[in-house]
Write a structure and sequence with these properties.
Two copies of one chain form a homodimer. By secondary structure, the first copy, chain A, is an alpha+beta fold. Chain A has six helices and 26 strands. In chain A, α1 packs antiparallel against α2 and α5 (260-274) packs antiparallel against α6.
Chain lengths: 368, 368
């Protein structure tokens, strides 16, 4: 195997696929990046058996072949080379020689034919979506994905497509984030995608300079994201996701309209005091045209006031401030509504400008 | 005690003094910031008994007094307040009430009269220096200060003033950095200032927007840095510093002139391969008009070539690449010289443009 390519392009391709290379794999071959010549293209793969990333790049190929090169060393080395032509020559015993201007490296690699095959995914069950919209859906929901491995299904987000409606839903047992979008597809499908996959997709979308839409394809166990020549394969989480529509409350007794930024900064400050405590809860007193936000700990106490427009009953209710902050940071709307029933039922936070986002958060007990 | 001031000014002052507040003090009062009214000024102090920082700021004072306020909570709280007037009112039992627009906080403080006194330092033994120059002296030497507590004197840098010459010297047993400057003073003094103090001074210089010079005052056990109304007190390290001029070699057999950036990038890449090894050494083959830089590990090997102008003998010598990188990063000169005797004697690195900087580094054994 022998090829030459530009340092900058090689570095970009390596950076993309290396996101799927785990630092702590028990299979030595998976700590490397797979290189393979395909006609006049170079194919690169990173794979940790849960997530695989494949990309193609142009190269001047003089000898076909494949090899696996240690990812960490290669990534840093190529990054530090000058932006010039890089020549890579792989010997029969998988020793990789890299030449660039006055630099020369030999790296001990592994045979390409021992690298695991990528899964095959049927292209039939697929739809396309604007990549920025998809990125935004991840940004507005992924923080509510559970980190608790004891309920594996909640460590992913539900991707639900039906009748041209596409919902992304994340639940961690204390709050739920739902983001809705319209897509042009007749596909009907439900799948739970691991949180890590979505976070990596989000990073990739921000890095790849592609004009086309993102294509998402499903089979029973896998999902494939395609962006130009870049492919991200991920296993799906097995099991039934929570029937989330059943959780959504109605018959609200109090609806408060509040400025999102003001509400966020006040809760942010209350959190400083509350976090000194074991019970991190803050208290919201919703009454007339004000929310009073208070917190206390052995260090002291805080009191904030925010103007609101209230319809319905007064209410005193406690929340974990972190759960409010997470949502308020990602809602793209000047004003939001808080929809409440009583101090033990879930609260709904929505942007006022549009109905494509719903955040549910459970209240918590406050000491009187 | 009662005063009002601007949020931004208060936040700036708190940030400065909090650098001397340790998070892990065993004396609760030292985890706070000392506030005291002084006429129409507010005095703030942070102190961890090794390092103390004092600053003054304008405030609208309506009741004189002093108090100690928990540093971490206060710093974050004031930072997150709107840029408006902040009113602070301290009760007899040291409860601090902070009001700003619609926010109100109560923080449990400690009595100001229990806060330790700042050391008195005689102003006689002092000199002034341009603060950017002093900052640069720290930048070019502090990385060579030892982190090893077993030889306490080397965890600081020597500040040596005589006949208008000011030298800063740091040694860690493997390398030595010497930076020289001219100052207008008749003072003759030697003192060893802890590395942490110098690093904090450097941060402060970059943050404080003052026009005047930095004043440095010594007594036997303390040093005081004064920048406008800001004062940084630090204990000095006790003991005799190494007689560093004795270590400086002469009678060089090989002197190589090399481009600093090129040399740095080559060593940087060699380091990537070498660090996979227990023996991190890289090999320099200095011959004719080239330095060949090579490294190897079980992952592979590297070879770099850099053009030089050599006077004297060819030489093969090994170095810890990290020690070369540290120095090459801070030398402000397009070209440098390497001055060598043989492969077991110290090597001197100097900028070619000026003679105010000398870096000494010990070679290390290389496997043949």
């Amino acid at each position: 195997m022998k090829f030459a390519c530009q340092q900058q392009e090689l570095s970009t391709a390596i950076n993309l696929v290396s996101k799927a290379v785990s630092g702590k794999t028990t299979l030595p071959i998976l700590s490397g990046i797979y290189f393979e010549t395909k006609g006049d293209q170079l194919r690169l793969i990173g794979n940790d058996l849960n997530l695989s990333i494949e990309t193609f790049m142009d190269a001047n190929i003089s000898e076909q072949g494949s090899v696996v090169i240690p990812a960490r060393l290669l990534t840093e080395l190529i990054k530090k080379l000058p932006n010039s032509s890089v020549e890579i020559d792989v010997s029969e015993n998988n020793v990789i020689t890299i030449n660039c201007v006055d630099s020369s490296f030999k790296i001990v690699g592994l045979p390409g034919n021992e690298y695991p095959e990528l899964p095959a995914i049927d292209d039939q069950n697929s739809f396309e979506i604007d990549k920025e919209l998809f990125s935004n859906m991840i940004r507005q929901t992924s923080f509510a994905i559970s980190q608790d491995e004891s309920r594996p299904i909640l460590t992913g987000a539900l991707l639900e497509i039906e009748n041209g409606k596409f919902n992304m839903v994340a639940i961690d047992g204390f709050r739920m984030a739902i983001k809705r979008a319209n897509v042009k597809t007749a596909l009907s499908n439900k799948a739970v995608v691991p949180g890590r996959t979505l976070n990596e997709i989000n990073k990739i979308i921000s890095q790849v300079d592609s004009k086309g839409d993102l294509k998402i394809s499903f089979d029973d166990k896998q999902v494939l994201f395609t962006l130009d020549t870049l492919k991200v394969y991920s296993r799906l989480l097995a099991g039934e996701f929570i029937n989330y529509t059943q959780i959504l409350p109605s018959d609200f007794k109090s609806v408060a309209k509040v400025n999102s930024d003001q509400f966020l900064t006040c809760i942010d400050r209350s959190f400083l005091m509350a976090r000194e405590n074991k019970n991190v809860a803050i208290k919201l007193e919703i009454k007339d045209d004000l929310i009073k936000i208070s917190s206390s700990s052995e260090m002291g106490s805080s009191m904030e006031k925010v103007s609101i427009e209230l319809e319905g009953n007064d209410l005193e209710i406690g929340f974990n401030p972190k759960y409010l902050i997470d949502a308020l940071k990602v809602i793209d709307s000047e004003d939001i509504t808080l929809e409440l029933i009583n101090n033990v039922s879930p609260c709904i936070i929505k942007p006022i400008d549009h109905d494509n986002y719903t955040y549910l958060v459970l209240p918590c007990r406050i000491s009187k």
